[in-house]
Amino acid sequence: MSEVKEIAEIPYFTVTLSIRRFDPEKSEEASWEEFKVEMHSTDRVLDALHKIKWEQDGSLTFRRSCAHGVCGSDAVRINGRNRLACKTLIKDLDINSTITVEPIKGLPVEKDLVVDMNPFYQAYKDINPFLVANDKPEKERLQSPEDRARFDDTTKCILCAACTTSCPVFWTDGQYFGPAAIVNAHRFIFDSRDDQADLRLDILNDREGVWRCRTTFNCTEACPRGIEVTKAIAEVKQAILRGKP
Amino acid sequence: MSVVPAGTLYRGKVGMWSWVLHRVSGVAIFFFLLVHVLDTALVRVSPEAYDIVIQSYKTPIIGLAELGLVGAILFHGLNGVRIILVDFWSKGTRYQNAMFWIVLVLAVGITAYFTPGHLERILEF
Ligand code: HEM
Ligand code: SF4
Ligand code: FES
């Protein structure tokens, strides 16, 4: 009986979160606010944010939808690094010191942890993120497993913006296409069924294209899908120099 | 109205800090070269003035700065090779971390190798 209880018991602990708050209706300045919450070892940072919003301060504003690392809504900066709040277990952080949570960097903050994603989506739209084929779609477009594998890594993107907003170049030059747009261009440039690689390579040969990349690897380190972002960017750089994928 | 609040410093890893060092060392080398081109050009204007300027470099502080210059050039050049490998070698992005530490050990090691002889020369001033 006591054994069963031991197994069933999930350890819990009290953690302090310091959250970057911003409410344009109250003040033009953002500021830090601390919250103490009791969390279980199975809880994620998103659960802490929920707990605060539901039990302590209903005005705390953040985005989330799936809560399971699929939709890409809740990229925030946890302890100084871009992470999905729903994929970051609290027990994996240093729970003895304050956990900081702030909005991702380089996009305009609307309220608390919510940023304006439109500039990010615009860069994505600009690379034509859809298959363009010159022949008529009369039958299925077949592809060998090898050809499919060529761009497998970059199909995994969930457009969370963790990579683009971890990039020092993007922070200072918001016009830079950014890693996410390049990753999604890579997904079509190296797709044997796509016929618009030339145009996409041309778009990314722009002043604000791939040549802005300084290989800081912040994007690769931040990507919650484990995409080798810097590698994808390097491959697009080489494709531009070659003039073909 | 929306603003971009500053927040904390981004906690990037080796890649980010190597880039910071690369830019700082690159800018430092640039300013050294600028001065160096100017003082060398002086020899065509007035050899006497050139001698005086070059003589004025023989101070312990400039001597130590020269060691810093050697370190900066070594780091910048070796890390430059690392960046080229990251961009053009298919496995470069996977080994970037290890390559950074190799660059750092080489840059510090080679600078340390030249240090004793250089310090002796500084002491002769
Ligand atoms: C051994 C010779 C050198 C090599 C192999 C080298 C290599 C490189 C490379 C590959 C980059 C690109 C960095 C990037 O894409 O992030 C770079 C940037 C740079 N280099 Fe050099 N370089 C050398 C000498 C110099 C010299 C002599 C100067 C100064 C006059 C210099 C100043 C700079 C500066 C200011 C940058 C810009 C850094 C940045 O954009 O972050 N480099 N170097
Ligand atoms: S590449 Fe990774 S970090 Fe960047 S938007 Fe896609 S999923 Fe997010
Ligand atoms: S809430 Fe959907 S990815 Fe985190």
Strand content of chain A: 15-25%
Number of strands of chain B: 0
Heteromolecules bound:
protoporphyrin IX containing FE, iron/sulfur cluster, FE2/S2 (inorganic) cluster
- Euclidean distance between termini CA atoms of chain A: 64 Å
Strand order of the largest sheet of chain A: 2-1-5-3-4
SSE pattern of chain B, N- to C-terminal: HHHH
Key traits:
heterodimer; A: 245 residues; two-stranded antiparallel ribbon; 7 strands; elongated; B: 125 residues; binds protoporphyrin IX containing FE; binds iron/sulfur cluster; binds FE2/S2 (inorganic) cluster
Quick overview of this protein structure:
Chain A has 245 residues and is of the alpha+beta class. Chain A is 31% helix and 15% strand.
SSE layout:
The complex is a heterodimer of chains A (245) and B (125).
Chain A (H helix, E strand, L loop, with lengths): L1 H7 L3 E10 L9 E10 L4 H11 L19 E4 L2 E4 L14 E4 L6 E3 L2 E2 L2 H9 L18 H5 L18 H5 L5 H12 L7 H8 L13 H5 L6 H14 L3
Parallel strand pairs in A: 1-5
Antiparallel strand pairs in A: 1-2, 3-4, 3-5, 6-7
Helix pairs in contact in A: 3-6, 6-7, 6-9
Chain B lengths: L13 H32 L1 H10 L3 H29 L7 H28 L2
Helix pairs in contact in B: 1-2, 1-3, 3-4
The complex binds protoporphyrin IX containing FE, iron/sulfur cluster and FE2/S2 (inorganic) cluster (FES).
